[in-house]
Amino acid sequence: MPRKEVTGVFTLHNVQYVVLGDAYEPSDDSYMLANYIEKALPKRLGGRGCRLAIDVGCGSGILTIELCSVCREVIALDLSPDAVASTIANLKKSDAPCLYAVVQGDGLSPLIYVKADLVVFNPPYLPVRDEGWAGIAWSGGEGGVEVFLEVASCVPRILRRGGVFVFVLSSLGDVDKAVRRLTRMGFVVRVVDRKKFFFEELLLLEAVYDAKGGAGRA
Asked: What CATH number does the domain containing 72 carry?
């Protein structure tokens, strides 16, 4: 297998990591999720802790590394071979203290007999349809939530009751549609963080699975 070209770098907890090929380079959305995992997730989990977390669309591996600090086992998935290579390289450099697996696959489809405590997803959320490995990293499809909803529809199958699904969406997309769909699937959804730009607002949402039908948007 040819050696992947380093196309970017990022720093997490004073350690520098690499981005290989067309893998998604960490941006504001990535750091919003990383901050949630580090600071808010331990409080949300309380004393029960996190046995298994799933990082969907792992990109560079920044969130996989962060998850390894709070969860005993982590599975990272991405369709892009460059993202898989980046995540593996960065996990090795991080000397991750958890058991982990990195899988190349589409969404959650590779997972069958799995029950997770946490699913983290930094989806492509722009309302466009671009091609190529770089393009799929930001192309959210119709309404900016088409790709997100395809993955979200599989989350109840692999998430324990009371488990948490955390993700980022953009105000440029149809956030209300995504929340309504999650509510019908049995999630209670709330916005836990926001970051405004002159052209959009990024929303970090937390959806708790109660398996009986959600109570709406907090």
From this structure: 3.40.50.150
